Amino acid sequence: MGLGRGKDDYKLAATSEKPTSKKAKKEKGKRDMEELKKEVDLDDHKLTLDELHRKYGTDLARGLSNARAKEILLRDGPNALTPPPTTPEWVKFCKQAKSSKIMDSFKNLVPQQALVLRDGEKKSINAEEVVVGDLVEVKGGDRIPADLRVISAHGCKVDNSSLTGESEPQSRTPDFSNDNPLETRNIAFFSTNCVEGTARGVVINTGDHTVMGRIATLASSLDGGKTPIAKEIEHFIHIITGVAVFLGVSFFVLSLILGYGWLEAHLLVMKGAPERILDRCSTILLNGKEQNLDDELKDAFQNAYVELGGLGERVLGFCHFSLPDDQFPEGFAFDTEEVNFPTENLCFIGLMNRILIFGLFAETALAAFLSYCPGMDIALRMYPLKPCWWFCAFPYSLLIFLYDEARRYILRRNPGGWVEQETYY
């Protein structure tokens, strides 16, 4: 048999037309995905050897010529899986994205060498250089370099477990045995192993057009959905963010209405151990008014400090002092080495519990778990916070519970309404 015209009308699975816009690229991607989701459209297993020769232009005794193989390689590209688009490193750093390892595992499936017959001579070439129409020989222990239409075999068996899940080796013969290309015995698939015997076949698909290539493309193109707990957390974050922004803007506008301006003077603020702070103070702030710090107030401070310390609370003392505008104008250079500002006769503001400082934020996050997570008794045993700390979150838990129950009630009474469209359910 001589060389024929070849498969000049061979087409790639993805169209070769170059999209001219983002919209065209998106539509092209959708069409490609739909094609990949369809059943494998393959009829080479039904062809006779003469029909196979006419379709691929392959001399079944001598194989392709080197010139013809180079033409097909330029037309179809190398016999390798196309990696998915990579994310820039700075985007990965900002988003802390998890890079997919799917394509890396499929790359390892490509064998290093393949034995082909070209111009009547056997030669070992890189598997990426195998082209459609090549005559390939495999033996026991080899990995199939591409989808092959078997034309001769001697006791050949392949391991299809990586593709179809069949645990037993499957025999391969030149005879057509099933209409389904995945079940017929005269097709050997890319990435499967030849476990025994020898076989010779014509390459009918390479790279992304192989059955395994279709699976790899589908696996790397699927977007993972969010889990229910991820949706709950995201929804909770949206609520807290909205409340925080609303309160921040409201207080800012309120301060402007009340006449507060921008920076008008310097304010000295000091924090530290309560007894050290009190030693530097001569006045105390009570009910918004500054009063002289007498012995009675010092005793009251000492009692409160000892009581909180006995409960294991970390307590800090705070004081401040308004610096005069004439002595400390805007741009005044403060020096902490040679102190040039007052550190005595300050005004004691009071004691502050560290839990109260961060409670509005930390305990609000715990509120979600108190309201929705089962097994909170286990959580309490693993992380035994004081009851008063857990009760800090109770008002927020109650608000979230009432909001969510109201939303669920509306969804039950009016399914498909605006509430369902505006929420994550």
UniProtKB/TrEMBL annotation:
It holds the Pfam family Cation_ATPase. Gene3D superfamilies: Calcium-transporting ATPase, cytoplasmic domain N, Calcium-transporting ATPase, cytoplasmic transduction domain A, Calcium-transporting ATPase, transmembrane domain. One of its GO terms (molecular function) is ATP binding. The chain crosses the membrane at residues 236-263, 355-372, 384-403. Residues 43-105 form the Cation-transporting P-type ATPase N-terminal domain. One of its GO terms (biological process) is intracellular potassium ion homeostasis. GO terms for cellular component: plasma membrane. Keywords: ATP-binding, Magnesium, Membrane, Nucleotide-binding, Translocase, Transmembrane, Transmembrane helix. Residues 1-35, 160-180 are annotated as: Disordered. The keyword NAD does not apply. Residues 1-11 have a biased composition (Basic and acidic residues). The sodium/potassium-transporting ATPase is composed of a catalytic alpha subunit, an auxiliary non-catalytic beta subunit and an additional regulatory subunit. This is the catalytic component of the active enzyme, which catalyzes the hydrolysis of ATP coupled with the exchange of sodium and potassium ions across the plasma membrane. This action creates the electrochemical gradient of sodium and potassium ions, providing the energy for active transport of various nutrients. This is Sodium/potassium-transporting ATPase subunit alpha-1. The gene is ATP1A1_2.
